[in-house]
């Protein structure tokens, strides 16, 4: 499965948040706003019997994933728990619901927003200090603006890999392996994937495709361990697994 196919697969797994007989007047509008980037469609259903009251069911392809009360959903949206570094939702509260909502999808991020998300993942890898970090720069020449960041990452016990088409001589950065190859996938893909350094709850990735003829990107921002593993497996099987000698 290519990187583009991974993006399409995750984006295609839309979930439905059913609000069954809600009595809270604005809960549907609030939920649509809250989950607008989570690939979730919010639907209100009122049954003939009026039962169950104030029930919330999250489903995918018609199969229920979890059921909670509207009061729990309202509390979640009010308190808005986030991860310790702002990356996605924190599973430590409302985990029954949030464990099924581990990815953000986006249709039009500009370069500034992509850099912002990339920095969050790089910072998580730096603070963890161990693990594998794979970053796609599209072109080797784009790596030069990030030499300072990747020199600092290379000083850690991290296995750091960067990717890009060879439009320049790759920079020599201690502790960083550069994969330069003429490849449409690398030229079009922006990605930063961290394997968590042995911690499932620290796995995270940004994976996006450049829109044709524009400096805009569509893709996914996830900390679903399974999705992160798929991205890393593809990169290592396609472009080579060269482990850093620690």
Write the layout of secondary structure elements.
Blueprint: H1 3-11, E1 15-20, H2 27-34, E2 40-45, E3 55-60, E4 63-69, H3 70-79, H4 95-98, E5 103-110, H5 111-128, E6 130-139, H6 147-154, E7 157-165, E8 176-180, H7 184-188, E9 189-194, E10 204-210, E11 216-222, H8 225-239
Helix pairs in contact: 2-3
Describe this structure in words.
There is one protein chain. This protein is an alpha/beta fold and about 250 residues long. It has two domains: about 5-100, 3-Layer(aba) Sandwich (Glutaredoxin), CATH 3.40.30; about 105-240, Endonuclease, Chain A. The protein is built from eight helices and eleven strands. It has helices at about 5-10, 25-35, 70-80, 95-100, 110-130, 145-155, 185-190, 225-240; strands spanning about 15-20, 40-45, 55-60, 65-70, 105-110, 130-140, 155-165, 175-180, 190-195, 205-210, 215-220. A seven-stranded mixed sheet has the order 5-11-10-9-6-7-8, sandwiched between helices. A hairpin with a 2-residue loop joins strand 3 and strand 4 (about 65-70). The longest helix has 18 residues, at about 110-130. The two termini are about 30 Å apart.
The CATH architecture name of the largest domain reads: 2-Layer Sandwich
How much of the residues is beta strand, in percent? 25-35%
Q: How many structural domains can be distinguished in the coordinates?
A: 2
Alpha-carbon Rg, integer: 20 Å
Poorly predicted runs are none
CA(first)-CA(last) distance: 30 Å
């Amino acid at each position: 499965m290519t990187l583009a196919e991974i993006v399409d697969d995750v984006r295609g797994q839309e979930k439905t948040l059913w609000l069954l007989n809600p009595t809270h007047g604005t809960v549907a509008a609030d939920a649509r706003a809250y989950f607008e980037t989570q690939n979730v469609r919010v639907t209100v259903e009122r049954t003939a019997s009026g039962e169950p009251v104030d029930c919330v069911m999250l489903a995918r392809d018609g199969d229920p994933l979890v059921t909670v009360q509207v009061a729990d959903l309202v509390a979640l949206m009010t308190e808005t728990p986030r991860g310790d570094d702002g990356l996605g939702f924190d599973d430590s509260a409302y985990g029954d619901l949030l464990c099924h909502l581990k990815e953000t999808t986006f249709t039009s991020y500009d370069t500034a927003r992509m850099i912002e998300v990339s920095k969050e993942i790089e910072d998580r890898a730096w603070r963890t200090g161990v693990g594998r970090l794979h970053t796609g720069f599209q072109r080797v020449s784009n790596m030069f603006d990030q030499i300072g960041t990747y020199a600092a990452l290379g000083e850690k016990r991290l296995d750091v890999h960067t990717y890009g088409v060879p439009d320049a001589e790759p920079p020599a950065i201690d502790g960083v392996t550069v994969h330069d190859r003429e490849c449409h996938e690398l030229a079009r893909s922006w990605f930063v994937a961290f394997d968590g350094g042995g911690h499932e709850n620290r796995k995270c990735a940004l994976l996006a495709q450049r829109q044709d003829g524009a400096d805009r990107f569509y893709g996914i921002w996830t900390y679903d361990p399974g999705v992160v593993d798929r991205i890393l497996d593809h990169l290592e099987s396609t472009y080579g697994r060269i482990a850093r000698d620690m």
